[in-house]
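Input chain follows. Return C-alpha cells only.
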Amino acid sequence: MSSDHKAPPPEQADFERTPNDHRFVAVYRELRQLADRLLRRNAGAMVSPTTLLHEAYLEISPRDAVFADRERFIGYAARVMRGLIIDLVRERRALKRGGGFHITQLRDEDHRAASPEVALDRLSESLDELAVIDPLLAELVDLKYFCGYTFEDIAAHRRISVRTVQRDWQRARLVLFEKMADAD
C-alpha cells in the first residue's frame, strides 16, 4: 500500500438550525437589550446580559414550538429569561441563607416574608397562574414589568390601541394582586 494514500478527513457534523435558531439570530440584538433591562430590574441575579441570553437560547433552541410571529417569540424568550433570573435569585438566596448546609431544626417564625426574593417568587407563581387563565395578560405583564416595554411599544407589537393595552394592564394587575394576596 502506498504511503501517500491518506484516510479521508472525518466528516464534520452538520448542525441543522431549527426555526427557533433562525428567529433567535434575527432578533438577537433586541433580545440582548431585553436581557439587559430584565437584569437592571432584578439586580439579585448577578449574571451578565449576554450570559442570560445564551442560557435562554439553550432553553429555547431545542423546543419544537413554532411561534406565529416575532412578537410571540420575544414574549416567550422574555418568559424564559424571567424564569432563569428567578432560578438564579433563588439559588443565590439559598446559598446566602446557608443552603449548602444541612438544616436540623427550623424556626417557628418565617423571616422570608419581607424578602424581595420571596416577593419575586410570589409574583412569578401568580404570573404563571395568570398565564393559564389569560396568556395574553400574562404576556403583557412580562413585556411591561419584566422587559420594560412601554404601553406604546406593546400596542404597536400587538397592533391594538394604547388605551386597550392600558385597560388590559389594569386587569392584569388586579388579578395578580388577588392571586398574591391569596398566596399570603
